[in-house]
């Protein structure tokens, strides 16, 4: 699972910030890592530095192996809060998506249940 962290001009994309975000992504999405090829993290300050509430936006986009991209977004007053919120939303989406795929693969066809 490759993790790419992108920031806009209003958020410093220092090595410490990238390491913190990568650690959070790896921790929360660890159970899905074998099924994901890439995770893109986009951090932006939508108020361009002005002091407003919930102006930090985190957009997460994941690429499941052999599937279409999935995304989740969250806003917070802190970068950590935005990343955490988006990760939890994305984990929920992945649980639903992979759960449906797994259920579909293991499901029997209608009428195959031959109970007496």
Give an overview in words.
By secondary structure, the chain is an alpha+beta fold. The protein has a single domain (2-101), classed as Ribosome hibernation promotion factor-like (Double Stranded RNA Binding Domain, 2-Layer Sandwich). It is 36% helix and 28% strand. The chain has a four-stranded mixed beta sheet, with helices on one face. Helix 1 (15-28) runs parallel beside helix 2.
Provide key terms for this protein:
single chain, 116 residues, alpha+beta, Double Stranded RNA Binding Domain, four-stranded mixed sheet, 2 helices, 4 strands, elongated
Question: Outline, from the CA principal axes?
Answer: elongated
Major sheet details: 4 strands, mixed
The count of β-strands is 4
The assigned CATH architecture is 2-Layer Sandwich
Which consecutive residue ranges, at least 5 long each, have pLDDT under 50? none
Total separate domains: 1
Tell me the strand order in the biggest sheet.
1-2-3-4
Radius of gyration: 18 Å
Estimated structural class: alpha+beta
CATH class: Alpha Beta
| Count of alpha and pi helical runs | 2
Percentage of β-strand residues: 25-35%
Order of helices and strands: EHEEEH
Roughly what is the average pLDDT, rounded to an integer? 88
Termini Cα gap: 47 Å
Q: Which range best describes the helical content: under 10%, 10-25%, 25-40%, 40-55%, 55-70% or over 70%?
A: 25-40%
Q: What is the CATH homologous superfamily assignment? A: Ribosome hibernation promotion factor-like
